[in-house]
Every structure is written in structure tokens, then in C-alpha cells.
Amino acid sequence: MVLAQAGAELKATLRHGEQLLLTMVIPILLLAGFSVAPLIDVPGTRVDFLTPGIIALAVMSTAFTGQAIATGFERRYGVLRRLGATPLSRSGLLLAKTVAVLAVEVLQVAAIVVVAFLLGWRPAGSPLGAAALILLGTAAFSGLGLLMAGILRAEATLAGANLVYLILLGCGGVVFSVEKLPASVQPIVELLPITALTDGLRAVLRDGSAPPIACVAVLLAWAALTLILAARTFRWE
């Protein structure tokens, strides 16, 4: 049942052009634009700095923003109420949505990697370490998106998810280094899931190190907290 629902979720996602724009086109445009144009000052090459952050942005856009908005409107239009009448459990639905998100992320990461290679990117670290961080980031952002969609109305979810997306894009170290922020703000920003995922991927793919323990701990904490709260508060109607 979970796999069947995950397949249906994946098909629904791929049919929506606006979600594909958010999850595929925007990250690739940011990668290409900031890599080619001398708009940022970073250590090393721009594409080496940007690619891990753009991968993290793609994970956030799919697992959090796109999923929160889609789930919120599924409740509004009665889709979730119909699913609630089936043998599929609430936890099964959440798991199916997360599996569908992972499938979309495979396509996203593949497209971003191809563009990055064309721009001269050469990763230095372990793909397995990066994959582990992406899985943790997906769990954290999925939990946050489903939590928001489970307790807010569709319109509030739409506005809130887009606002959070823009805030995290601006201050999460995706395009601009967190070190450029005021020193008093940096400790708070480093506890955000987007910052942990970006810094972790950057450490693995640019610096060739193992996933930093601090980044893994932040992502694990966000995943555990948000998924538990989402499972307890998620409503079919």
C-alpha cells in the first residue's frame, strides 16, 4: 500500500509544472547564474562552493516547500479524507510521501550534478557520505513540511512554506556564506536544517571530509522532532 501510494504521489508531483519549476529549474538557474557571474566572493571556485548548497536547496524545495503546499491543498479538496477511508494508515501515508520525495530528489540531484560538471565542478569526497546527509535532510524537511500541512489551512500553508523557503534560502548558507552574517546571528543560523545540510555537503563534496558530527546531529534532531510531531498532529480533514 505504501509503495502504491508513493507511486501515485510521484505521478501527481510530476504532473504539476509549478512544482517542477520550484524543485528543478530554480536551483539549476541559481547554480548556473552564480557560478558564471562574479557576484559572490568565496574561497576556491564558485561552482565548488555553490553545488553542495544548491543540492541542499533542491532537497528543501521538494521535501519541505513542495510537499507542504501539495499536502495542504489535498486536505482542502478532500483527497486526504478519501485516503483516510482506505486501509492506508496515517504513518503509511507520511512514509509514502517521503518515498515519493526521494524519487524526485534522485532526478533533481542527477540534473544538478550534470550541470555542475559542465561548469567545471569536480567533487572531492564520498558520494555515500553525501547520500547519507541527503537522506537525513529529506527526513528533517519532510517532517517539517508535513507538520505545517497537518496543522494549518491550505492558504496559510502556501504562504508560510514560501516565506520559510525564502528565509532559509537567504540565510542558510546556500549561496552566501553564513560567515558573512552578523556574529550574533551565526549560532542560531547554524541550528537550522538547511545550514546543517549545506555545511555537511560542502564539507564532504568540496573538502573531502567525513560528514561533520555537528551537522548530522542537527539534522537528526530536526528529523526526530518534526516527524514525531507530524505523526501525532496530522489530520485527514
Structural commentary:
- The radius of gyration is 17 Å and the shape is globular.
- Helix 6 packs parallel to helix 10.
- It has one domain.
- The protein is built from ten helices and no strands.
- The chain is mostly helical and 237 residues long.
Note the main attributes of this structure:
single chain, 237 residues, mainly alpha, 10 helices, globular
Query: What is the assembly state of the chains in this entry?
Result: single chain
In terms of DSSP E residues, the strand content is under 5%
Number of helices: 10
How does the helix and strand content classify structurally?
mainly alpha
Secondary structure: helix percent: over 70%
- The number of distinct structural domains comes to 1
Instruction: Name the overall outline.
Output: globular
Q: What integer value in Å does the Rg equal?
A: 17 Å
Low-confidence stretches: none
Mean pLDDT: 85
Total strand segments: 0
Report, as a whole number of angstroms, the end-to-end distance.
21 Å
* Helix and strand pattern: HHHHHHHHHH
Largest sheet: none
